[in-house]
Design goal:
alpha/beta; Rossmann fold; binds 2-acetamido-2-deoxy-beta-D-glucopyranose; membrane; transmembrane helix; EC 2.4.1.-
């Protein structure tokens, strides 16, 4: 792309699961354009980010002042990772106070560039207020969603059509999203299940989600071909473009220091995998933010053992314990499980962190038991790995719906941290996906089809641009044409 050097501002909400996709997007834009990038966040998050930016990158990290104790939060807590669940909403509410400082920051950027505004501002789905800043300063502004189109469409529709506590059956359809299948109350994240329209979450979401209407569009870390119903939902609902530009993922080396402590070296992992036959290993991980209950963990372990399959399991302490503390296998796993697993060579228990990308790309890996966070899903799909879904929170429940009902690359095993899980079901789901059954083969076939779709979407060759590459170009064209329009108006006025 030959264009003049422009500035692009990115600002994610202070939450690891949001900062990581934004960083991936920033690096992706940097690689594909010659634009300069300003990455905004609060001081402690910026400090952490300094270690994750590769040395060759020229992304400019900029701090926005924030003091958590001014908002009734413990001192020095600037990331939801450092907060118990009931305080997460308070950090969200506090983030609204960043508006004046953010406006000032953009004004300074404009001044530094002799009156030339940034080409665009890309903000978090939680920063509905940012559209006001962008409008006042005449800058093109988009929201970036690290969630799937389908997941976010469910989420948006659910918040905009509260409450769901009053539905008369356990299953209901979404009034403004008829393309989606019915939602079961066990698929509702806690805050939506508890919402009555007047609680803090409802008030925050209703206002901020309405703020999206003033945005110039939404960027999605997804691929048009398998996620179109969610994308169409937003195109119709907001009357704005939805650009599907994914998958943009962080490479393993850029992921530190986000929870890489502990764990296992990629080399050891690959070495272990290489002793296993083709398509024989199940990879189990619920991400760095989630864990299951002690009771569920026992059943899962029993099921894994009874399935007769090889496995790599990223273990975290169960619900009720510090998720980042050491794992006590004697207490939380069936008696002798750890020894049997080790002696038979059938399983690898990994504490805290595993080299996910290396594992998913290994030919010995057959399936992925996952919480279906969208980043994990994109990684699995990029390597053609079918999934066994166990969603835990937020829009993960709807990702499973998409993957199971529309894409056909997933079966659901359980929902949430309190449902009953039986080891017999663990065994049957694992064998359904991993054995040479008709369903298993069909899922593998579809997963490898999706892998090809993804490769195509990201292809950028002489004479051929994949859908995601083209969408990114369209996004920049839209920003540039707004810029030209503003310049014409300004010249006309002068
Ligand atoms: C699946 O494969 C396992 C061996 O890995 C075998 O013991 C089991 O009987 C198979 N189950 C089905 C349903 O085919
Ligand atoms: C743009 C917008 O509507 N922002 C709102 C987001 O939510 C907070 C808390 O409810 C409001 O104070 C903001 O006005």
């Amino acid at each position: 792309m030959a264009q003049r050097k422009e500035n692009i501002v990115l600002f994610p909400f202070m939450m690891q699961g949001h900062i990581i996709p934004f960083l991936a997007l920033a690096l992706h834009i940097e690689q594909r354009t010659n634009h300069s990038i300003t990455f905004v966040n609060t001081p402690l998050n910026i400090k952490k980010l300094r270690y994750s930016i590769p040395p060759e990158s020229s992304i400019n990290l900029v701090e926005i002042p924030f003091s958590s104790s001014d908002h009734g939060l413990p001192p020095n807590t600037e990331n939801t990772d450092a907060l118990p669940y009931h305080l997460v909403i308070r950090l969200l509410e506090a983030s609204v106070s960043l508006e004046p400082a953010f406006k000032k920051l953009i004004q300074n950027l404009i001044e530094e560039q002799q009156g030339r505004p940034p080409l665009c501002i890309i903000v978090d789905i939680f920063f509905g207020w940012a559209a006001n800043v962008a409008r006042e300063l005449n800058v093109f502004q988009a929201i970036f969603s690290g969630a799937s189109g389908c997941g976010l469409a469910h989420y948006y529709s659910l918040w905009m059509n509260l409450p769901h506590r009053k539905v008369d059956s356990d299953e209901f359809s979404l009034p403004d999203f008829p393309e989606a299948s019915r939602v079961h109350i066990t698929q509702l994240p806690t805050n939506i299940l508890e919402a009555d329209g007047g609680d803090a979450w409802s008030v925050f979401q209703k206002k901020n989600l309405s703020g999206w209407m003033k945005s110039d569009g939404i960027l999605f870390n997804t691929v048009e071909q398998f996620d179109h119903i969610g994308l169409s939902y937003f195109r119709d609902k907001l009357g704005r473009p939805a650009w599907s530009i994914g998958p943009v993922l962080l490479s393993a080396e850029n992921r530190s220091p986000f929870g890489k402590e502990g764990g296992i070296s990629p080399e050891l992992c690959i070495e272990w995998l290489s002793t296993k036959p083709l398509n024989s290993v199940l990879y189990v991980s619920f991400g760095s933010m989630n864990t299951i209950s002690a009771k569920q963990m026992m059943q899962l372990a029993t099921g894994l053992e009874a399935s007769g399959k090889n496995f790599i399991w990223v273990v975290r302490p169960p619900v009720g314990f510090d998720i980042n503390s050491d794992f006590n296998a004697k207490e939380w796993l069936p008696e002798g499980f750890e020894e049997r697993t080790k002696n038979s060579g059938r399983g690898l228990l990994v504490q805290k962190w595993a080299p996910q990308e290396e594992i998913l790309s290994h030919k010995s890996v057959c399936a992925f038991l996952t919480h279906c966070g969208w980043n994990s899903v994109l990684e699995a799909l990029s390597h053609g790995v079918p999934m066994i879904g166990w969603p835990m929170a937020a829009e993960q429940f709807f990702n499973v719906k998409l993957l199971q009902e529309q894409v056909g690359v997933c079966v659901e095993l359980a929902r949430g941290k309190s449902c009953e899980v039986r080891h017999e079901d663990v065994v049957s789901k694992i064998q359904l996906v991993m054995n040479e059954t008709q369903e298993g083969n069909e899922m593998r076939r579809k997963a490898s089809q999706v892998m090809k779709i993804i490769r195509n979407a990201m292809k950028d060759e002489e004479g051929f641009k994949g859908s995601s590459i083209k969408a990114m170009d369209d996004f920049f064209s839209a920003a540039e044409s707004k810029r030209q329009q503003t310049e014409i108006e300004n010249n006309g006025a002068a």
